[in-house]
Amino acid sequence: MDTLTLALLATLSPLPAFFVALVLLNNRPSMAQAVAIFGTALALLGSVGLLLQGPTEPLRFAWFSSGQIHLQFGFLLDGMSLMFGVAVALITLCVMIYSLGYMAADPGRARYFAMLSLFAWAMLSFVYAVDLLQSFIFWELVGLASFFLIGFWYEKPEASAAARKAFLMTRIGDVGLFIGILMILPLTNNFDLPALLDPDTGLVKLAGPALSTITLLIFMGIVGKSAQFPLHTWLPDAMEGPTPVSALLHSATMVAAGVYLMARLHPLFMAAPDTLHIVLAVAAFTALLSATIAMVATDIKKVLAYSSISQLGFMLMGLAAGSLFAGVFHLITHAVFKALLFLCSGVYIHHFATNDMREIGRRGGRSLGATTLGLAIGAGALAGLPPLAGFFSKEEIFAALGHEGSTLFYIAALIAAFLTAYYTARMFFLIALPDEVVKEHHDDSHHGSPQPIVMLAPIALLAIGAVGLGFFGAAIAAQLGLVPAHHEIASMLPAVGVVILGMALAYFDYGRTAAPRRGFIAAVPALHALFVNKWYIDEFYRAVFVRLNDALSALFFAIESRFFDDGFDQVGHSAIRAGSGASRLQNGWVQFYAGATMFFVGLAALYIGLR
Amino acid sequence: MSDALLFAPELALIVTGLALFACPIFEFRYRTAWLLAAAGGALSLAAALLTIDMSGQPFAVGIYRVDFFSQFAKAALALGFVLVAVISHRPETLDRSAWVEFPMFLLFATLGAMMMVSATELLTLYIAMELAAYPLYIGVALHRSTGNGGESATKYMVQGMIASAVSLYGMSFLYGVFGSTYFSDFVQQLPAATGQPLLWIGTALLLSGFLFKLGAFPFHFWTPDTYQAAPHEVVTYLATVSKVAAIALLCRLTALMTDVQITTLLMWLSIAAMTLGNFAALIQQDVKRLLGYSAIAHAGYVLIGVQTGAQLGFSSALFYALGYLVMSVACFLVICEVGRDSDLISIDALKGLHQRSPLMAATLLIGLFGLIGLPPTVGFIGKWFLFSAALEQGQFGLVLVAAANSVVALYYYLIVLRAAYLEEAVDAAPVSVSPWVRLTALASMAMVLVLGTFPGRFWDMAARAAQALG
Amino acid sequence: MPILSSILLVPILTLCLLLLMPARAVSAIRWLCALSGLAASALSLKLFFAYDSLAGGLQFSEHVSWVEGVGISYHVAADGFGTVLILLNSLVYFTGVLTMWDLGHRVKEYFVFMVLLVIGVYGVFMSQDLFFLFFFYEIAVVPMYPLILVWGSGNKDYAAMKLMVFLLAGSALLFPGLLAIYHEAGMQTFDMVALATHSFDAEFQVFCYPFIYLGFGVLAGMFPFHGWSPTGHVAAPSAVSMLHAGVLMKLGAFGVLAVGMRLLPAGAVYWAPTFSVLAAIGIIYGAFVAMRQSDFKFVIGFSSVSHMGVVLLGLNLATLGKAGADALNGAVFQMFAHGVMTALFFSTVGFIYDRAHSKTLADFGGLGSQMPRAVSLFIIAGLCGAGLPGLASFWPELLVFLAALETYPIIGVAIIGGLVLTAVYILRVFALAFYGPPNPRWEGLRTQDMRGMQLLPRAILVAVLVFFGFYPNAMLNTINQTTAALLGRF
Amino acid sequence: MTLESYLALGLALFSLGLVAALSQRNLIAVLIGIELMMNAASLNFMAFNRYVVEDPAVGQVFVLIIIGLAAAEVAIFLSIILRLYRQRREIDSEHITTLKG
Amino acid sequence: MIEQAVLYLFVGLVLLGGLMAAFARQVLYAIIGLGVALLGLSGVFLFLGSPFVAAMQLLIYIGGITVAIVFAMMLSISMAVQPPQSHRGKSALAVVAGALFFAAVFVAMRGAEFPSPAGALPADAWAISRIGHLLLNAYNVVFETLSVVLLLAIVGAILIARRERKTA
């Protein structure tokens, strides 16, 4: 098949699935599921086909012209997009298959699968977009699809609020992104990515000093999408969505879009050192911040959510440190193992109907053996335990940070890695090694098997990925057209050290038989409270921004009703009053009439006479 | 013979008038007199249209001129008279003992109006003016009610007499300044006399008689009171034929003797009239009274055209006069029909008119839309011409004031419309509308709309008429 | 066959037929109007495709002298803008008739007024004569009063009067303005094509332009003269709100474009900074006020104020700076997109209101599971309002934002930031009315969701939104040449 | 006496008539005031007739017509007063103020 | 000299009558004032060269109109006998209006210039026959119209003054 067909297949095929599932098959969920999975499978097929064909010239088509803008749409088929496209399609498909089990009892699953298709379409189109504006459009649509998915159970007020929050927080970032993109246009008159990135004729040359501003604004969008501080708070809340959705959104796709965009525009960022410093600082701070929160969270999805934020910080650090490969590599490995972790947690949640790790553990989480194994692999990968995938990709990031020579950030990353290892292990220990196990007679009849094959198969697939992907670093680098540096064993030591240290501490706190089962941080109550309350950031936002917004809208509303509405009414009333005044002249007394008349006649005569 | 032809519109009325005079003597029924009057009016209208292109002086040289202007105005007057005559097929609010004579009064008033527009000499003008006025004093006084009829007539007449005395006094000055009563002499001697304040005082005073007929500020006081408590049919006449005659005369006199002092005065009068009329109308509860105030406001609008002192202004004023005639007929026709049994008509009495008589409601709608100045009625295009004429003189501010005024006016017209069209009836008994009135209603609606959408022909006529003013 | 006059004649004939039909023949009346809407739509589509977008300029010109003495002529022609907006009007007309399919109260009169309104709107979009432009403009405005008063709801007395007073106050400004143009040119013609050849004195332009802009701007819901619009929306029946927000408000913007900017370019340039600021304030202001409303239609009403601010901003920016073409394209595109979008909004809200007899947000809650189709449609409209890509209004906003950013960076940043505000109030509606646990009070509505014929008009509107969302070229190709021609005047 | 003094006399008469018309309570007295105003105009005509005009007959005719019309006017007004009196039992101008506002 | 004195007497009568009419507390005095003023006026007319008009003034105005007014006055006999409390403010305002008018016109009148007759008047200029001639030729329309007006006035007056029939 030719490239265009494949590209169309890879991007467009979920769209008809979305439409059909939503509009035509709304009352036939099983057919809707089939259609959706078929669509995504086709997309996977397409993307794999593209990958096999290897990088080619971008395909471009004119889209619209207005004034001096000439926009095009098309497909950018370089190594990064090919690789990432496959990852997206694959993980989406995994999640869909998994959802067959997870959502089996939900009456609205036709809508669910439709929205997944919509999501797949938007995300894949985003990945392959050749034009920055095209990227933005699908970036927004990704946000929209995730809005619907997070708020899938819209009858739950929390879910609806979470969806809203996600949409708004990312929108705030998008404003920056949008401005940034629009600032590019006058400089280049088009948004063609290869042209923009061209080192000789691209934006780097054209923008000059404005480049810092532009990249910073674009980074704002990335902050929103990839849930970096200070716009990260939507992501944990977004866990209100169905767990497979979390797996999808917070592993390979939605949040990855930000990192992907940064990777896409990496040359631009590299040319703007000021921005890079800010990126590094924000990412490092985010990584630390969210790791500390994850340390004390008890909700398994919250832990995973904060770990996502933290890992995204890692990726951005890697990119900002100058290593495209480090960022992308971690992005891909993270996609796999985080999806794995979410899917595993989904099994627990589905089965035990709770998110609380302690509760899961107590009620026999480890009895779900396959899942617990998956959890162990995922957790290991996340913690960066060699030789799992996470180890290699994180190692690249450390190397990049070390290479770049910013000791401060290197240390920050180490601490974050330490914390990651700690809370990951904590999670695992809480589930797998509870202090007591309450045997309960679980009535499985209405649930079916706790680990149906449709749920286990994706887990297995991803687990394999999480184990093996680390060894494909060179291949991935090759796809990116890079040659990964060889790392000395010695340079790996600090990283491995902190990981082991973290896990050990977690074992000391939670794993061993006489463990206190409370984190070491509980020793410092102030910090503990800070972490448990997520650094009070939500409260701060509520107290400042939400209230500011409310106050402003109240102010404007008051202006509207007091000044404009009442003002109009006042004008009306004074007209009426003027009317009654005027008609009071008409007092019914004929001589007054005549007198007034003659008075004015006299005035008129005087006017003429005196001239 | 040709003289008789020139005088044909008036002659038709005179002949009919004599026949009408015989009606009470031979104790004919009202129906006969009514039919006779309508037929006479139609005849006169036909005659006016027939002679519209003629010009000449049927009587002694200089006192009476027939030209396009006069015939155009006469056609309008005759049209108004016919419409009013048809509408008053059962003038219940009129003293029943005077029914048979009633058409005669209207007819002679019309005759007076016709003579006014042709008169080119002060004495003729004066007597024509009085001929046009006295029958209306009588008509207003012939209200059946034992309540306010007399009051209304008294007020009307006191102010009318004062206005005519002022007018007469003004004529005396013109007589003195020019030493003649002939307009032709005026024109001749005007250049020499422009510096005379007495000339312009005389002119201003002379105009007051017509301002009174028009109901313009400061001679507007009679309008609401008289409209409210005079017999509906007489009010209809006052609101239509009378106005046309007054506007025509104002045009003729202003065209004759234009001076910046007079036009400035008229401009201020115009502003005062429309502002006062519109604002005072806002709080009215009685429909006829409200329309009285609206008439004051419209007098103000028409004066916009007159005060330009230019041909475009006169033609726009004449065109508006024609439009105002048909719009008013449409409105008052409804009032005559709906208010047949009551002396006073409050806005509430119109409630649910669309159920009681869709035709009447539609007529009122079209009429009021016209008065508001909305397309596709003649009110819109009429205002367009008027404002355009003022802007030709660069009077942007005046137009702005007038336009703002029309917004104020909107309110009270809509209140009336709302009652008629949009509210449910209290008493849903259908209004019985005689076929004649039906026809008149349709005709007036058609005229309002046709004049509004295809104004070309009529505008050309008005322009020609203004041209004839010289 | 002269296509523009045919388009105009369709509703005129419909009106005549309607007047002749007995009021009892309700279903015949409906079908007549639907057919008329369909015919008008077909003709408008034909016009849309027949318009030679490469040549641009005024096409399908028809010229008949009307009042020769003063130079009034019936001159209709369509440029790119007119073509697009005529199409919009047909669309809203047709879907509006279908939306009111279930009307039972004084049906004949309703359609009479509605058709009258439609005639006026068509007339404005195709008139090339100042007189006829204003003539049709007023015709379009007036029927709103009875339509709101008889078929409206709530505080309709007040709303209808307020609307009329505002709009006619706008025409009170226009009236002297338009006539002043005529007399200043001294060409004895109201023909805009001819007047456009006259270069007006700069001082006059500066003096006259505000009258034109404000006069038309009132109808376009410009801040701070927007008060009539939300109030009117709330009280009006749904199809009237559709026409009102969908096309009527566009008349204002179109007037600014066709009269103000075309004839008085120097005035437009002079005033553009001031009016840009006002428009930008309107965008932000409308969004903030919308955030606090408790009534569906008030939210949409203020969102219209906000969105029309984008149109007006685009118009003003068109006169300034390099990105003029984008700004103007954006403004015109936004007129169309907003028209379709609000039509969808009101059509859907009207549907909900007809069944629930409530428009109060807090009354609902969880309606999403009770009337999923209606709610979905509303959500689509809402997302369009929020400027989501893939729906038509993304493009115009993009273009206007771009121009704003280039011309007035601060305004640009502020209004792009306004996107968040838009999202806030739209999502607030979703959260209050559609999401959350279903309210047992509306359980009865489960069986009354949209179906069949009720779905049709809304589906058409959605299709249009999506079509132009992904294929903006269909719009931009049509208007590009006209934009370029107009920009040539500055 | 000069023309000016005749005119001044006429003006005085007109003004006095006006005062009468405006201040008298009895409608008949109001009528009297108006008659005086008309007579002031007559006086002007006669005066101009004497001093200014080429053909003095015109002014005389004018005055004659004025007299005739005044008679008609008085007849009508008196009958209206009569009617008013029958309706209200008085002809006090200050009491016929039902129609107002 | 005596002529002058008589003229001034008539002028005095006019003013006196006017004052009486304007300020009389009783209608009767107002009527008498009217009569006096008209009488004076007809005298002035004599001096202005027109005995015919003076006679007409006497005959029609004093003999006809004033008498008619006297008859009408009988109606309001109660008011005539017992004059109502005068409204002082109102009279003052009326005087102000009158004075304003007087002043305004007077100011204008002072600067007025009037044309004087071009040549000597023809001999029969003041002849009564000339009036008749005018009325029947140039002013025939006016004359006819006057008769119509009078006729209408009479018919109207009768109709108005007739007792209203009770309407059904």
What structural class results from the helix and strand content of chain D?
Answer: mainly alpha
Over the alpha carbons, how many angstroms does the gyration radius of chain D reach? Answer: 17 Å
The count of domains of chain B is 1
What is the H/E order of chain D?
Answer: HHH
> Beta-strand level of the residues of chain D, as a percent range?
under 5%
Low-confidence regions of chain D = none
* Sheet having the most strands of chain B: none
Description of the molecule:
The complex is a heteropentamer of chains A (611), B (470), C (490), D (101) and E (168). With 611 residues, chain A is mainly alpha-helical. Chain A has helices at residues 3-12, 14-24, 29-53, 79-102, 109-128, 132-150, 157-188, 193-197, 203-207, 210-225, 234-237, 243-252, 254-264, 266-270, 273-296, 300-320, 324-352, 357-362, 369-383, 389-404, 407-432, 453-468, 473-480, 489-511, 525-532, 537-585, 590-610, and strands spanning 59-66, 69-75. A two-stranded antiparallel ribbon of chain A has the order 1-2. The model of chain A has no long low-confidence stretch (mean pLDDT 83). By secondary structure, chain B is mainly alpha-helical. The model of chain B has no long low-confidence stretch (mean pLDDT 91). Chain D has 101 residues and is mainly α. Chain D has a single domain, classed as Orthogonal Bundle (Helix Hairpins). In chain D, 78% of the residues are buried. The mean pLDDT of chain D is 89. Chains in contact: A-B, A-C, A-D, A-E, B-C, B-D, B-E, D-E. At the A-C interface, strand 1, helix 6, helix 7 and helix 26 of A face helix 12, helix 14, helix 17, helix 18 and helix 20 of C.
SSE order and pairing:
The complex is a heteropentamer of chains A (611), B (470), C (490), D (101) and E (168).
Chain B: H1 2-6, H2 8-25, H3 30-50, H4 68-87, H5 102-118, H6 122-141, H7 149-178, H8 183-193, H9 197-214, H10 222-229, H11 232-239, H12 241-256, H13 260-281, H14 287-307, H15 311-338, H16 353-356, H17 358-372, H18 378-392, H19 396-422, H20 435-453, H21 456-469
Helix pairs in contact in B: 2-3, 2-5, 3-4, 4-5, 4-12, 4-15, 4-21, 5-6, 5-12, 6-7, 7-9, 7-10, 9-12, 10-14, 11-15, 12-14, 12-15, 13-14, 13-19, 14-15, 14-18, 14-19, 15-17, 15-18, 15-20, 15-21, 17-19, 17-20, 18-19, 18-20
Chain C: H1 3-20, H2 26-50, E1 59-67, E2 72-78, H3 80-99, H4 107-126, H5 130-141, H6 144-151, H7 156-185, H8 192-195, H9 202-219, H10 228-235, H11 238-263, H12 265-290, H13 296-318, H14 324-356, H15 367-370, H16 372-385, H17 394-407, H18 409-434, H19 455-470, H20 473-487
Antiparallel strand pairs in C: 1-2
Helix pairs in contact in C: 1-2, 1-4, 2-3, 2-4, 3-4, 3-11, 3-14, 3-19, 3-20, 4-5, 4-6, 4-11, 5-7, 5-11, 6-7, 7-9, 7-10, 9-11, 9-12, 10-11, 10-13, 11-12, 11-13, 11-14, 12-13, 12-18, 13-14, 13-17, 14-16, 14-17, 14-19, 14-20, 16-18, 16-19, 17-18
Chain D: H1 3-23, H2 27-51, H3 56-88
Helix pairs in contact in D: 1-2, 2-3
